[in-house]
Every structure is written in C-alpha cells, then in structure tokens.
Amino acid sequence: MGATLLCELGLFLLCTLLCTGHGQDAVLTIEPNWSSFFIGEFVTFKCDMKEGEDTDWYYKITKDSREFLSYRLNNDHTLQITSTGDNDEYQCFGHMKGSYDTKISNTVSITVSAEKPSATLTAVTTIIPVEGNVTLTCSVNPSSSSGWKYYWYRDEKSSEALTTQDAVFHSNGQISVSQEGLYRCRGGRGNPVYYTEDSQEVHINTTGEFGFSNNVEQIDD
Length: 221
Hints:
Layout: H1 2-20, E1 23-31, E2 37-38, E3 42-48, E4 57-63, E5 66-72, E6 76-80, E7 88-96, E8 102-110, E9 112-113, E10 118-123, E11 134-141, E12 149-154, E13 168-169, E14 174-177, E15 181-189, E16 194-195, E17 202-204, E18 217-218
Parallel strand pairs: 1-8, 2-9, 10-18
Antiparallel strand pairs: 1-3, 3-6, 4-5, 4-7, 7-8, 10-11, 11-14, 12-15, 13-14, 15-16, 15-17
C-alpha cells in the first residue's frame, strides 16, 4: 500500500512538472560578461526562455532568492552598479502568457569591487633616439580585470586622446611616440565608457635627462 502511494505520488509530481513546463532550462546571461565590476559600471541581465518568442513571456529577476524586479514584459534589464551591495547571485523566472508554464534560469554571480581601478604607465626609456621613437605601455590595476581599451594623452592639460596621427598604436596597451611631451594614459571599458584613474605622467624628451614623475615605472633593458 505504501509503495503504491509513493509510486502514485511520484507520477503525480512528474506529470505536474511536464504539464506546467516548470523547469530549469531558461538561461540568464550578463553583458558584459566580466568576472568583476566596479562601482559606476553598468551590467545588463538578459533572460532567454528557450521557447516561443520573447514577447510570449513575463519576466522577473531575483537577487539572493529575493525579488529584485517584479514580473514585466522586458526580458532584459540594465543595472548601474552603485555599491558593493550589488555583489550577489541573480536568477530569472519566466511565466508564459495565458498559461501556467513557468521556467527558472541558472544563477549568475556578480562581484563588485569598491576600489576604483588605476592605470600604470611604463616606458623602456624616456629619451627619443635620433629619427626613432619610444614605446609606452599602459596597464590597469587590478590586473585580474578585463575588457579594457587604452586612452593616451600628451601634455598636462590635454583632454583629447591621441590618435593614429600622433602615435603608432601596437597591440592593446602599447604605443610608440616620436614627439616630446608629458604623457599619461588611462583604461576604459563598457558602454557608456567607465574610466580608470589616470596614470602618473612621464616626460618623453630628446635630451639626456630622464623625465619620470613620481611612481612612474621605467623598464630595465
């Protein structure tokens, strides 16, 4: 009798699962898909039910198993990171219009760093050889963060980034310059662009005097 009851209960639960369509086959993704974010950046959640059209569903998002966004028609939501309190696990739920069909997605974790990233500028030398150039390298700290593009500036008050008319751009993070000046760099990523702190400045010149300002690294030959 007990075994029969358990069997019937199992069949009932299986039927309920199949008939209502409740399953963990929806997919929640984030864009950009970075391992960590900084306060001020934006992240977009997108929920895909893997069935029907996007407009066939209502969507909601939970944060740490608590409702973050109530059911709505849009399957995506852009969040601006405002504090380390956004550091959590997120999940989306879908409810098909006009039915009992519901789906649950995977969980996605967001890690938020409170410290604003900084850029570091390094150079092999600060002296431009005759008819030559100097290679500058920009990097972002912490180095574990990704997705950076690099912006270069010459002269202390300049807010206009250098272009291919001003320097030779190599792999991401390196340029060669042949003009004297005070150079600095910073990293940027995302849309809208989120910028790091500016690097320290380095004076590139054609004389025999080194021109590094404080905390700027020179690479040994």
